[in-house]
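Our collaborator T.R. sent over the components below with a one-line note: 'Predict the complex.' Nothing else. No constraints on interfaces, no templates requested, no preferences about which chain binds where. So this is a plain run: every listed entity goes in together, and whatever single assembly comes back becomes the starting point for the next discussion.
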Amino acid sequence: MSLDLIANLAYIVSAILFIFGLKMLGSPATARKGNGLSAVGMLIAVVAGLTDQGIVSYEFIVIGLIVGALLGSVSARLVEMTSMPEMVALFNGSGGAASLLVGWAALYGGGDAAPVSTFIAVTVILAILIGGVTVTGSLLAYGKLSERIGSGAIVFTGQRVVNSLLLAGLIGSSVMLAMDPSPDSTWFYAVLVLSLLLGVMAVIPIGGADMPVVISLLNSYSGIAACAAGFAIGNNILIVAGALVGASGMILTNIMCKAMNRSLSNVLFSGFGAVKQGKAIEGEVKPISVQDAYYILEAAGNVCFVPGYGMAVAQAQHVVKELGELLEKNGCEVTYAIHPVAGRMPGHMNVLLAEADVPYEQLLEMDEINPRIEQVDVAIVIGANDVVNPSARNDPDSPIYGMPIINVDKAKTVFVLKRSMASGFSGVDNPLFFNENTRMLFGDAKTSIGGVVSEFGSS
Amino acid sequence: MDIVFLTFILVLSIFLGFELISKVPATLHTPLMSGANAISGITLAGAFISAGIANSEMANILGAIAVAMATINVVGGYMVTDRMLAMFKSKTGAKK
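Returned assembly:
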């Protein structure tokens, strides 16, 4: 049996493990095992990849492996759960960069330095192109998520024209490169630079509440880039794994878009919040003190927490869980309602609450909580804004009109924990704050909840 | 390798991917995404050949960077996913 055959058989095994791994990631009870399986699959694929007969020197490989493993493991261990979205964006970007580089290196031809065929050239270009978009797109998403750069959408006049020109230039230089594939060609550098530029242009008009969509879309791109790299070097496992990731990323993206009742193209091109501004809201907010909040909660029989990104910023998840437990001991039913796009990545809030040991059975999705929201005595909104904004339901002029929301305004009482009266990440006003049954608990969410918890303790 | 054969694999994998993910609860979206993200580091298996091939110093250097980048993606991705999943607990099951 040749080494090549063994490697390919090993790839089949790792493909099976990836598939089972992804399948098991679909249920909370088996997810961790599933991730482990998929990691084993990866290990097998990596070992099989190392046996390739074209490899004559291992020094570069070893250096790369050591550097990568160190950087990856250290950052994975140190990252705070609240910063998970930007971490995933960074990892994603490095995956895209790898595909780009593999495509680039493939331009130098195989071991026999034979000229690269047109088909290979096309796939190489795709790997460079999609990889390039993934790299800069992810880096920009990282910047936006970590708020190193402004998180809002950047839209300027003529943006579409610039993008169209960019795209035309990219297609043109790709065609030229495909006809004469060489790493020394000017067209190659044009493709490289233009695709990196396209990644930037693709992400800058997207901001605010749309970031979860971008993250999962970029995730999908990195899979497709790996897939293209697989074609470029004729490697089965890259194609299979890349396609799996690409497809699953697409599905997640789709789920996110549905959760906002918008089409993907609307998310990608419209520049959220920059289009039109809903009507300004007049009225008075009714602040509440920590002590009064405690009295109301103490008497409540059904409390629902609605967390948003603000909870992550305030690191309030542990103290929220503490309050939840106290309320439960007090004979109150406690649930956590999580909007699909709350936070900065899909499922972000679930991870934070899981970190605080909240059992996942208590976490309700939007469709589960809305039908029974009227039975909720107190809905506590912690650092969420757009996902509970009633304008989405009844103000056709609002930029978020039509987005399904958690209808906390229909609960008997709503507490909104907020640092100040500034508008949310998307910059849209929220009439919820002015509602008859809304009480504002101003201040840092962690301190406020902590105050209520100690009220419970002292009584 | 045969282009048609590779395309065949591609199409089947895409369908499989769609089937696998379509019914995942929202709770798991983040780990699923970062787990899938780790899989996209599979480029690693392909980066070896570029890093170790004989004919071009430049391809070797690009390959080495690709290996490092992909390893970050793989190692970091799996570790971070595991860290997250370790926190998911059921009320009935894993209560310490």
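Summary for T.R.: The CA atoms of residues 33 and 39 of chain B lie 10 Å apart.
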